[in-house]
Amino acid sequence: MNTKDLLASFTAGGHAREQAFDDDHDLIVLLNSGDAEMRRTCTPIVSKMNSELVKRGTLPHYRFADRFGYYVTLFPELALLFQAQTEDTFIDQSQILGARVVVGSRRFEKAFSETIIRPFIFQRNEPYIRQMIQEVSARHARGEETGQDGVNIKEDRGGLRDIEMIMLMYKASLHVHTPVTARLFGELAGRIPDRRQAFYRLGEISAFLKHLRDIYRLTTSADDTLICADLDRVLSVVAPQGQDGLVHSKRLMEKLRATMSESWEIISGLMAEILPCRTL
Asked: What's the rounded Cα separation, in Å, for the pair 57 and 60?
């Protein structure tokens, strides 16, 4: 059975954003077919791949396996899922929109765009963006900021989660296929000249936050919450004594808070402009 141009593997999450560290490997395996027999043929292939990944110490997580019950997801299944348009559809749409192809042909990518991305995300971008904005607001309302002694560099206001979500909103708004990597900030800056500096600065902030989180994980703890008292180890890497005035943990924490505050100011401005007649 010939599966060329019909079967492809995508990576999602941090791997899709080229930000892999020690996280689980999020995968999406798609088959451009509604043929159950073809899926049965493809499943052992994916199962063997899964075994090889586990041998190398990587824990694969198949994003749609718990929903559909198979390693391999069929195009018609995705279409039915998105046609339902429930209050949490944006979560699955974000997984697809943020995914990056690892194994797959150009012909498959074109078919995927025309069959799934364009009709169910690009052409329905307004409800998707509204759901995303509501989720940002709800998440901020649910969670208090980490506190005086620490910052959650991912979930707190202006953190990595907010940056990822605003980039996905603009991908959907402008029909952009580029994954949420460093390249995307430059592409959006070129698409919206009036906001060029905002996107470039957001790209710089994203790189700074990711760099700081990685060093914290390597030197201190595999956690998204950075504690002020533990930043002395980080300082020796990111800001040696006397460099940039960051000579102790408190100054580094102040810089982190100020950077995330600037990030949220930029993100708030971009959200306010992405949809007309909308109140934040």
From this structure: 10
